[in-house]
Design brief:
Alcohol_O-acetyltransferase; Condensation domain-containing protein; Atf2/Sli1-like; alpha+beta; globular; about 525 residues; five-stranded mixed β-sheet; about 25% strand; CAT-like_dom_sf
Length: about 525
């Protein structure tokens, strides 16, 4: 059956189709962890422990979502061609998009995430949408992760945060207003069109300054480009697109008090939480991979520079602003290149640097143009079938270590706020209602990207609890313990630098390395 054509996929979405075609990046996982708390006057119950029970529980909320979000019932046509398109499914079969698993404790969630990231959506199967839901029971505390796994083509992280907030709201709505009639699990698609792309909302044509900034990467031969660059780090082994693409995940949680400590430190230092994370990630990477510590008086730091990528949401920058419930990709990257971290490097100087750069990018006309014109540059990529995938594989030759960036921190900020439960029918009029499904914390994870970035930290905060899922390609390191060690150092340095005793001091990289010296 030929499905109805919606529109061709624009650059901001098409890049993710090409990444999957190149076998170097597959999907994203976002969702809350919830706890069932029956109303005091209700008979105590429990949530189902199988797929069938969760299909029954989620049918009404997901039916509402599918009927209000056209992007949930689209597929990609001609995904191997130069001009893929969105096609409309006639309906979505919910029984095929829900699965159930169980783990002993939440720290085992990395295994579930790795399975998801190593299992791409089949873009050639037009009977399945670009998303699925994995319900994960955490047995130790009887909580449940509601993981929304999706092909990045359909939406950015901010859109899926809003979507899964609505999912929890609808779960609570159904718990308080149960229907006596069971709904069918096959949901008809809505008639509305998918939200407009970023390129249709703003002119992305690159200007002279953008061309000059990107000319080296786009036009110089690989050997000359690399000869002109300072030595940088992006993994223990260079990227090789011919190797199997396998994502590994490290997962960590900050307690509520630890999260508040980081937030308070950012406030005290007049910066942002993202800026604090930026400094801690740089310090941790340099400490684990590029430093040798013999004792307090004998520390050697390699001169290798680091390239740091920061995704920036353009939803509030575009005119008119993009609604928070619109599903689409409205994000661009700001890259901080050639970051040098030496023994004397100050933690809070690094934090101030990234904050100033992000402010400049999002509040000045040139900064905003630089972000949107990156999408315009994609118009000049090869136009033949498979051309974009070939271009992405070419970074294994064009870039040092075969990767564009050393590090990436994608921070979605706060989500799933239940301080006031908002009815989804009238979001402009919030009303406080009882909470049956309480959000414990949240989770955000992305698959590894072969030639784009070596280590990607994915951060989200819910219920005053920050979680970080770090992804890397298995082939980048000698073993997964290297990525896990870096994440352990990230947490240690983050909490050390932001501790009340040190937040007012000039915390430098040498201070961060003293812990490694003491370990010896």
């Amino acid at each position: 059956m030929t499905l109805p054509f919606i529109r061709y996929i624009d650059n901001s979405d098409k890049v993710h189709v090409a990444q999957q075609q190149a076998d170097m990046y597959y999907n994203v996982v976002i969702g809350p962890r919830i706890q069932f708390q029956p109303l005091v006057n209700e008979k105590q119950g429990q949530l189902p422990l199988n797929k069938e029970g969760w299909l029954k529980l989620l049918t009404a909320p997901l039916t509402w979502l599918v009927q209000h979000h056209p992007s949930l019932s689209v597929v990609v046509g001609d995904h191997l061609k130069a001009n893929p398109a969105y096609l409309k499914m006639p309906s979505v079969d919910l029984s095929r998009v829900i699965s159930y698993q169980a783990i002993k404790n939440t720290l085992e969630i990395n295994r579930i995430l790795e399975d998801e990231h190593n299992n791409p959506c089949d873009l050639g199967d037009h009977t399945l949408p670009l998303w699925r839901i994995v319900v994960v029971h955490v047995q130790d505390d009887d909580t449940f992760h509601l993981l929304f796994s999706f092909q990045h083509t359909m939406a950015d992280g901010a859109g899926i945060i809003a979507l899964t907030e609505q999912l929890v709201e609808r779960l609570n709505h159904e718990a308080l207003n149960p229907s006596s009639t069971a709904l069918p699990t096959i949901v008809p698609s809505p008639t509305e069109d998918v939200p407009a792309s970023m390129e249709s909302r703003i002119d992305c044509t690159p200007g002279i300054r953008t061309w000059l900034r990107e000319a080296r990467a786009m036009f110089l031969p690989a050997f000359l480009k690399k000869a002109l660059e300072k030595k940088s780090w992006a993994g223990e082994f260079p990227a090789d697109p011919s190797n199997p693409h396998i994502t590994q995940i490290g997962y960590m949680t900050l307690t509520e008090s630890e999260t508040r400590q980081v937030m308070q430190a950012a406030k005290t230092r007049h910066t942002t939480v993202h800026s604090v994370l930026f400094a801690a990630i740089l310090f941790a990477t340099k400490a684990v991979f590029l430093s040798k510590v013999v004792d307090d008086d004998n520390m050697v730091v390699a001169p290798d520079r680091l390239h740091f990528s920061t995704p920036i949401s353009l939803r509030n920058v575009l005119t008119p602003a993009v609604g928070r419930f619109d599903l689409g990709n409205y994000v661009s990257d700001h890259v901080t290149r050639d970051v040098s971290v030496q023994l004397e490097t100050q933690f809070w100087d690094l934090a101030r640097q990234i904050r100033e750069e992000v402010v400049q990018r999002t509040t000045t006309p040139y900064g905003v143009r630089a972000l949107v014109e990156v999408m315009g540059l994609l118009d000049y990529l090869p136009k033949h079938d498979g051309g974009w995938a070939e271009f992405m594989r070419s970074f294994s030759v064009l870039e040092q270590n075969g990767r564009m960036h050393s590090l990436r921190c994608s921070n979605l900020g706060k989500g799933w706020d239940q301080s006031k439960t908002t009815t989804t029918e009238t979001p402009e009029e919030p009303v406080t209602t009882p909470v049956v499904f309480k959000v414990v914390d949240g989770l955000f994870s992305q698959g590894a990207a072969t030639t784009t970035v070596c280590l990607c930290m994915n951060v989200v905060t819910a219920n005053n609890v920050m979680t970080v899922a770090t992804s890397w390609q298995k082939e980048a390191f000698t073993g997964r313990d290297r990525g896990e060690r870096m994440q352990a150092e990230l947490k240690r340095i983050l909490l050390d630098a932001t501790s009340p005793a040190k937040v007012g001091l000039n915390y430098n990289f040498c201070d961060a390395l003293l812990h490694l010296s003491q370990e010896k």
